[in-house]
Each structure stands twice: as structure tokens, then as C-alpha cells.
Automatic annotation (TrEMBL):
<dbReference type="InterPro" id="IPR006680">
    <property type="entry name" value="Amidohydro-rel"/>
</dbReference>
<dbReference type="Pfam" id="PF01979">
    <property type="entry name" value="Amidohydro_1"/>
</dbReference>
<protein>
    <submittedName>
        <fullName>Amidohydrolase family protein</fullName>
    </submittedName>
</protein>
<dbReference type="InterPro" id="IPR032466">
    <property type="entry name" value="Metal_Hydrolase"/>
</dbReference>
<keyword id="KW-0732">Signal</keyword>
<keyword id="KW-0378">Hydrolase</keyword>
<feature type="signal peptide">
    <location>
        <begin position="1"/>
        <end position="21"/>
    </location>
</feature>
<dbReference type="InterPro" id="IPR011059">
    <property type="entry name" value="Metal-dep_hydrolase_composite"/>
</dbReference>
<feature type="domain" description="Amidohydrolase-related">
    <location>
        <begin position="79"/>
        <end position="423"/>
    </location>
</feature>
<dbReference type="InterPro" id="IPR057744">
    <property type="entry name" value="OTAase-like"/>
</dbReference>
<dbReference type="GO" id="GO:0016810">
    <property type="term" value="F:hydrolase activity, acting on carbon-nitrogen (but not peptide) bonds"/>
</dbReference>
<dbReference type="InterPro" id="IPR051781">
    <property type="entry name" value="Metallo-dep_Hydrolase"/>
</dbReference>
Length: 426
């Protein structure tokens, strides 16, 4: 897109025009404290040298060689850390359009919601997200628009439509039978499921999302009930991995979690009712758990106002605390954990509110930060690009005034955001 069009687009949206880092531009950031998420330590008085969109060096300020003419950014009174990663988002979702209220929202309108949500998410310090489901491939369009510089937002890995059985959590069960509506993500049987994976990949999905069990915010099913069979999930995983895509499985119930892990999925989303067998399997197979343990608060406090179905609120009352307790069990049981919040169920930009719950249910502040940085980068398949302040990686950098390694709730008060060498918030 030409500069004139970028400026017009920005003016219409009421935001600053997005920009890309000049390949030759050099920036030096002086950090009072720097969180080394790889070592799990906090370093003092460090200088980060950035060329273009990448970090070229990180080290003590006393010995740093700052190139002549470099732009200097003084964060000497703050704590600097890598941009955060949320592995379970729905940027095109509006949390106040739940249940039947959502039926009046077109896929195009939802994608436009995503523009605002993407900016809020990035300004909150989340420089990378994995978007696990959107109608009309709205997340793919949003990803491409951000990459092209049309709008400001985080790096995105997208799923397109979530894949599931007819009448299941990934279908649309709010419409009457005479409408004869089936979600585009529905696929029954192993070969139809394989074909659906191919369709998602064809139209731009980076990751495949499946619904292995029922859900909380869907009509007519139970979170603990398994939906896809082991055979169907094995077909999906085999096809996705063959095409170079990882698989994220929405799975609340014990049998769906077990079979999804046995099928070889890369992550279990929610994992609310995981049992000892599921934790053991996840640990042995190296399957990540992505457990959204903050949004229970929003559902129970704001769900009725947002239009969520009474049955959904009733289901959340049963499952919410169980999920939090099982988060503790899974973490202490040695399962790998990555940060994911289900944003879009609650307001975008509030992602960091989950850190407090991760600490309350067993993690240290550093472990919670690692879940949202190096662990998430590993699950994403982007360890070489994001997740730590290391030479060669994208200059995705945030800062806070306090010390998040001592209290990760400081991450709800981000004061500085840089993505790819460009300052987004200062």
C-alpha cells in the first residue's frame, strides 16, 4: 500500500500511521533492569542495540559499543523484557456480543472489530498472538493487513475456521433447523476432516484448531463430552503436520484431552477437567497446556450483560474453579504450560490480568513470564524469532516501571512497547 493510502487509512481509524523499521536504522535502549527469560534472572544496567527490526546485541551498558548516530532510548528507570505472547486469542470477537447477539455480526464487521482489538492487544505489551478461530478467515485478513502496514497490531499466527463435528462446539447451533446452516469448519469422519485441514491451509491458516470436546459458550453441548474420535483426530494431526501446521485442540473433558494427546496434537486448549492420566500423558508427549484461567471472572460478572446464554453461565459456574485447581495440578505435575487467555471472551487489552491467577495457582512470577515468552515461542514454532531479548530476534520489547520478576501483575501497567524496532507506545 502506498504511503498516501496508509495515511488516509490511519486518519480514518484515528490512529498513528503504522511504519516499518528502516533496515539501516540503529537504536540503542538502555535498560535499568532486563529480564533474561532464558536464564530466569534479572540483569542490571543493560544496553540493547537494534539494527532495523532485529536485535544485534545485548550486554552491560559499561561495555556496550553504541554506534555513532544511533537513536537513544533511555529506560534506565524501568524494567525491560521481551514482548509478551498470547497463545489463545480471538481478535475478531467482541466480548459484549455473546449468544444470540452475535448472529447480527457479519464476518466482515467482525474483521473490523479485529482492527481495534489488535491495536489494544499490542499496546498492552502483547507483540505476538496465536488466533485460534475466526469466521470468514477474518483473522487471516487481519494478519495480512498488519503485515502490510495497513494497521497496527501484533504478529499473528492464525487458524481460520476452527474445525469440529456437526452440532458441536465449532458449529453454529443458535439457528433453527429450517435455516439449514452449518459452519464452514464442520467436518465429520477422518477423510472429511483431512480435507478440511487442506482447505484451512489453502486459505492461509498457519495453525489448525480443532474442537475435541464440547464447550462453555456453545449451545446444546457439555464441556466434558468428547466430540471428535481418536481416529478423526489422528487424521487431522497427520494431515496438518504433513502440511507443516501445528494443531491446537479445544478440549475440556478427560477423554477428549487423552485422545487428543494420543493423536499427537501440539497443545491442549482449556484442559479444564484434566486428570492425572492426562497430566502424565502431556508430560510424556511434550504436549503444551494452554489454560485460560482469568476469563471465568468476566463470564460470571459480565456474561449476562454481554448476552451470554444462561446455560453457558451455568456451565462456567461448574467448570471455572475446577480449571483453576487443575492448572495447579498440571503445573506441579510437570506439564509444559504456555500463556493463553481466550481474549475476545473478555475485553481485548486485558490479557495481562491472567498473570495474577497463574501466580495464585502455583507459578512464580518468573515462571508465568516464561510461559508468555520462551514457552509460547516454542509452541508457536518461532523460537528463532521471538520470546527473548537475544541477538538475531525481532526487537519486540516492552517495559514497566516495577519489577515483574518479583510481581508479574506489573505487566498490566506496560509503559513502553516496541515491535520490530519501531516504538508503538512510549
Amino acid at each position: 500500500m502506498k504511503l498516501k493510502h496508509l495515511l488516509i487509512s490511519a486518519a480514518v481509524m484515528g490512529v498513528a500511521a503504522p511504519s516499518f523499521a528502516d533496515a539501516g536504522k540503529v537504536v540503542a535502549i538502555r535498560a535499568g533492569k532486563l529480564v533474561d527469560v532464558v536464564a530466569g534472572t534479572v540483569l542490571k544496567d543493560q544496553t540493547i542495540i537494534i539494527t532495523g527490526e532485529r536485535i544485534t546485541s545485548v550486554g552491560p551498558s559499561a561495555s556496550a559499543k553504541v554506534p555513532s548516530g544511533a537513536q537513544l532510548i533511555d529506560l534506565s528507570s524501568q524494567t525491560v523484557l521481551p514482548g509478551l505472547i498470547d497463545m489463545h486469542t480471538h481478535l475478531t470477537g467482541d466480548p459484549y456480543l455473546g449468544g444470540y447477539n452475535a448472529l447480527g455480526v457479519s464476518d466482515t464487521r467482525a474483521a473490523l472489530y479485529g482492527v481495534r482489538a489488535a491495536r489494544k492487544t499490542l499496546e498492552a505489551g502483547f507483540t505476538t498472538v496465536r488466533n485460534v478461530g475466526a469466521g470468514g478467515f477474518g483473522d487471516v485478513a487481519l494478519r495480512d493487513a498488519i503485515n502490510d502496514g495497513d494497521f497496527i497490531g501484533p504478529r499473528m499466527r492464525t487458524a481460520g475456521y476452527a474445525i469440529g463435528i456437526q452440532g458441536g462446539h465449532c458449529d453454529e447451533n443458535l439457528l433453527p433447523a429450517d435455516m439449514k446452516f452449518t459452519s464452514r469448519g464442520v467436518a465429520d469422519g477422518p477423510w472429511e476432516a483431512r480435507a478440511k485441514v487442506r482447505e484451512m491451509a489453502k486459505y492461509g491458516a498457519d495453525v489448525i484448531k480443532i474442537c475435541a470436546s464440547g464447550g462453555v459458550l456453545s449451545k446444546g453441548d457439555e464441556p466434558g463430552a468428547q466430540q471428535y474420535t481418536l481416529e478423526e483426530m489422528q487424521a487431522i494431526v497427520g494431515e496438518a503436520h504433513k502440511l507443516g501446521r501445528k494443531v491446537a485442540a479445544h478440549a475440556h473433558g478427560t477423554s477428549s484431552i487423552r485422545d487428543a494427546i494420543l493423536a499427537g496434537v501440539d497443545s491442549i486448549e482449556h484442559a479444564s477437567l484434566i486428570d492425572d492420566e492426562g497430566i502424565k500423558l502431556a508430560r510424556e508427549k511434550g504436549t503444551y497446556l494452554v489454560m485460560d484461567i482469568y476469563n471465568d471472572d468476566f463470564i460470571l460478572q459480565e456474561g449476562e450483560k454481554a448476552g451470554m446464554l444462561p446455560e453457558s453461565i451455568a456451565k462456567e459456574k461448574v467448570i471455572g474453579q475446577l480449571q483453576r485447581d487443575n492448572f495447579r495440578k498440571a503445573f506441579t505435575g510437570g506439564a509444559k504450560m504456555a500463556f493463553g487467555t481466550d481474549s475476545g471472551v473478555y475485553p481485548h487489552g486485558d490479557n495481562a490480568k491472567q498473570f495474577a491467577y497463574m501466580i495464585r495457582y502455583g507459578m512464580t512470577s518468573m515462571q508465568a513470564i516464561q510461559a508468555a515468552t520462551i514457552n509460547a515461542a516454542d509452541l508457536l514454532g518461532w523460537k528463532d524469532r521471538v520470546g527473548s531479548l537475544t541477538a538475531g530476534k525481532y526487537a519486540d520489547i516492552i517495559a514497566v516501571k516495577g519489577d515483574p520478576a518479583e510481581n508479574a501483575t506489573e505487566l498490566t501497567k506496560v509503559t513502553f512497547v516496541m515491535k520490530g524496532g519501531e516504538v508503538i507506545r512510549k
